[in-house]
């Protein structure tokens, strides 16, 4: 005899009731009158939750909820209690506490970049071309201005570029350089995925007397294009967003903050790795073409000197790039692997 | 309360005593559920998250009791999983397009604004339909046009009034949401006052400015010692403090606003002949709870989350009373008949939450 509430189907009416269970038959009585009976096979029993009685739902939608919150039915399947057992198992909880951060790290920092790198190989050239052109259109509209450099200065950059590209046996049609004035970027160069490299006026002026240093920077940018870094970043972002969307489904705000900063860190680490890759590409090509890492080191030093005057942009530079000092030392000590 | 009485109508004017909303869950039990959910979600690469959502909701709904009867969460994990996969799929396509084709992505963002009202309506509909009390499901009947006006057009317009219109817009949004909720065949009615929203917004803004000034003062005093550009460490240390302090202050301000607005909504809402609501949430107490919750979560790297969530839900329940009127026994469930399968699928995709308590 189990005391509880009987809920009538599709109505808010509730009756205090008593359930009697005989073998595989259950009957519910309210005011000494049988209001519902059924064989236990046709009953639906609710999930096993701590502190909540397991309720019975009859085929017509009527329900019986025992008053005793710890009540479980003898005919309830053991499967539903498994989770509840796990959730109150101290050993498992401790294991979960250790395993969760480890898994989160593995997922975000190993699996996601792994999938992203694989996904890059499937991106068709036409998509890369579009991606580059559309990004350039946006950047050009927002932060780039026509160059202030004289025809001669521009031609010097262009000539240096053509020499470098032909020395590398790369397609001069795909790889092209443009000079723009930009307050946003300062002395800088950046590469777009489809092979367009942008050099700012400030950078061209800064290295005007040292064309080999500028060549080293251009090689670094070509390295980004050759290694498809932009495409990898985009695919990384896409894969990370899938992972996060799936995980956050149930993790509330905290997890969002943790995962959000995790993925920001990830972006940072990813972009730092890419800088190293582009550096190594530039250094290897410098050696192959008969120049040395010293030229790259000089270029970085010029940028570093500039940096001290603009504390702000220098800090910004630090965040996505490895420390300049480290990169300069790396450039000086670089020996090409055979 | 004698629920067996069928149509024994109450004498006019006889008010039942208010029933206290009870929350009977505890942090220890929920911690177990939470950590197991997290672990299984990670192990299954997110698939288990649907089961985790259902289990968490079942725990919280089932531990919320009114007049001795618990609330029920009815969605099945498969329902949630299907919707989530579809939503995630769409989201992936969207983020791929916007990262590979930035120009097309910008246009898509605009198109998405047209979908927002639909998503909000279907989301509310879904979460209401999945909520049951005493064999009666809740329902939501909103229209696309009204949702468009309230959630997209008016907030956009308020930008041009320097957000002076915003409290009024928020009032309209709350009125829209609550007056379209139904308990079975009985609609909820609310009478909201714009001035309450303006008062709450003004109070929170003034407090916010005050707190910012105090924090600024404190930091310039602390920072004054290390105004040395070479010491990057000092800057980082400052950043380390700013984030938790910011969270603490924001949570406190949020608590004040939410408490004021919640009291206003519930104290002016009723379901005809079924229930009247009463909320006595003290703003300063709720602010303290939310702020210390945020601090505890940050300081324990997230481990205090289950405790914090239970603490918040319990405080909300403790501040809520419901007067059940005689008609509470005679509500009929109609929500099930009025749903097309399309609406269900659509609602499944975007299971937007709004909290019940």
UniProtKB/TrEMBL annotation, chain A:
One cellular component (GO) term of this entry: membrane
Span of domain DUF7092: 1-69
Cofactor comment text: Binds 1 zinc ion per subunit.
InterPro entries (UniProt xref): DUF7092, Mito/Outer_Membr_Metalloprot, Peptidase_M48
Keyword Metal-binding included in the entry's annotation: yes
Cofactor (UniProt): Zn(2+)
Keyword Transmembrane annotated: yes
Transmembrane segments: 89-108
Gene3D superfamilies in the cross-refs: Metalloproteases ('zincins'), catalytic domain
CDD domains: M48C_Oma1_like
Record keywords, A-Z: Hydrolase, Membrane, Metal-binding, Metalloprotease, Protease, Transmembrane, Transmembrane helix, Zinc
GO molecular function, a single term: metalloendopeptidase activity
Occurrences of domain Peptidase M48 (ranges): 152-333
A Gene Ontology biological process term: proteolysis involved in protein catabolic process
Family: Belongs to the peptidase M48 family.
Name under which the protein is recorded: Peptidase
The species this protein was found in: Pseudoalteromonas rubra
Lineage: Bacteria, Pseudomonadati, Pseudomonadota, Gammaproteobacteria, Alteromonadales
Automatic annotation (TrEMBL), chain B:
Record key words, sorted: Membrane, Transmembrane, Transmembrane helix
Membrane spanning residue stretches: 31-52, 73-94, 100-121, 142-166, 197-222, 234-257, 286-308
Pfam families reported for this sequence: DUF898
Region named Disordered: 1-20
Domain of life: Bacteria
UniProt-listed InterPro entries: DUF898 (IPR010295)
Name recorded for this polypeptide: DUF898 domain-containing protein
Natural source organism: Pseudoalteromonas rubra
């Amino acid at each position: 005899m189990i005391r509880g509430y009987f809920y009538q189907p599709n109505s808010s009416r509730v009756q205090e009731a008593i359930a009697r269970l005989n073998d595989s038959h259950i009957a519910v009585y309210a005011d000494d009158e049988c209001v519902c009976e059924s064989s236990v096979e046709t009953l639906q029993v609710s999930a096993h939750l701590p502190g909540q009685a397991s309720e019975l739902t009859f085929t017509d939608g009527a329900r019986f909820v025992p008053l005793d919150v710890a009540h479980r039915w003898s005919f309830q399947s053991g499967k539903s209690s498994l989770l509840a057992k796990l959730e109150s198992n101290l050993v498992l909880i401790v294991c979960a506490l250790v395993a969760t951060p480890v898994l989160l790290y593995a997922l975000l920092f190993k699996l996601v970049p792994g999938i992203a790198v694989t996904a890059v190989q499937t991106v068709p050239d036409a998509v890369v071309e579009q991606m580059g052109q559309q990004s350039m259109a946006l950047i050009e509209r927002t932060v780039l201005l026509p160059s202030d450099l004289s025809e001669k200065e521009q031609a010097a950059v262009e000539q240096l570029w053509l020499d470098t590209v032909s020395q590398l046996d790369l397609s001069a049609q795909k790889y092209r350089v443009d000079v723009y004035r930009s307050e946003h970027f300062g002395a800088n160069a950046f590469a777009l995925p489809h092979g367009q490299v942008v050099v700012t006026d400030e950078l061209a002026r800064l290295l005007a007397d040292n064309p080999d240093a500028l060549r080293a920077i251009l090689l670094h940018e070509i390295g980004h294009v050759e290694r498809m870094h932009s495409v990898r970043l985009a695919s990384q972002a896409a894969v990370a967003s899938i992972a996060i969307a799936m995980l956050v489904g149930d993790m509330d705000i905290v997890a969002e903050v943790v995962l959000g900063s995790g993925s920001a860190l990830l972006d940072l680490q990813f972009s730092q790795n890419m800088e190293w890759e582009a550096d190594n590409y530039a250094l290897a090509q410098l050696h192959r073409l008969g120049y040395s890492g010293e030229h790259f080191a000089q270029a970085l030093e010029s940028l570093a000197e500039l940096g001290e005057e603009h504390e702000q942009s220098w800090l910004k530079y630090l965040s996505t790039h490895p420390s300049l000092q480290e990169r300069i030392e790396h450039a000086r000590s670089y020996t090409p692997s055979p | 309360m004698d629920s067996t009485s069928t149509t024994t109508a109450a004498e006019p004017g006889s008010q039942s005593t208010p029933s206290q909303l009870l929350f009977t869950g505890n942090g220890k039990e929920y911690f177990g559920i939470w950590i197991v959910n997290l672990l299984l979600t990670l192990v299954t690469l997110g698939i288990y998250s649907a089961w985790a959502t259902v289990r968490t909701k079942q725990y919280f709904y089932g531990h919320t009791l009114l007049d001795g009867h618990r609330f029920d969460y009815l969605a099945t994990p498969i329902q949630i999983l299907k919707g989530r996969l579809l939503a995630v799929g769409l989201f992936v396509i969207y983020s791929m397009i916007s990262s590979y084709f930035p120009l097309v992505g910008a246009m898509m963002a605009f198109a998405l604004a047209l979908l927002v009202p639909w998503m909000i309506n279907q989301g509310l509909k879904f979460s209401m339909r999945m909520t049951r009390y005493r064999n009666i499901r809740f329902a939501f009947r909103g229209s696309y046009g009204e949702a468009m006006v309230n959630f997209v057009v008016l907030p956009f317009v308020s930008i041009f009034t320097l957000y002076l219109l915003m409290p009024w817009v928020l009032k309209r949004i709350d009125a829209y949401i609550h007056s379209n909720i139904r308990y079975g065949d009985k609609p909820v009615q609310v009478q909201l006052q714009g001035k309450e929203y303006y008062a709450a917004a003004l109070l929170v803004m003034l407090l916010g400015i005050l707190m910012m000034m105090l924090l600024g003062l404190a930091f310039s005093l602390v920072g004054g010692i290390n105004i040395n550009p070479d010491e990057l460490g000092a800057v980082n240390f400052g950043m380390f403090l700013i984030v938790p302090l910011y969270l603490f202050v924001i949570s406190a301000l949020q608590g004040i606003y939410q408490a004021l607005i919640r009291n206003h909504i519930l104290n002016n809402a009723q379901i005809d002949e079924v229930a009247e609501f009463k909320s006595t949430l003290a703003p300063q107490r709720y602010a303290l709870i939310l702020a210390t919750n945020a601090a505890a979560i940050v300081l324990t790297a997230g481990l205090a989350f289950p405790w914090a969530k239970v603490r918040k839900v319990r405080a909300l329940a403790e501040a809520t009373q419901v007067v059940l009127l005689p008609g509470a026994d005679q509500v009929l469930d109609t929500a099930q008949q009025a749903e097309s399968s399309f609406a269900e699928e659509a609602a499944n995709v975007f299971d937007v939450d709004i909290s019940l308590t």
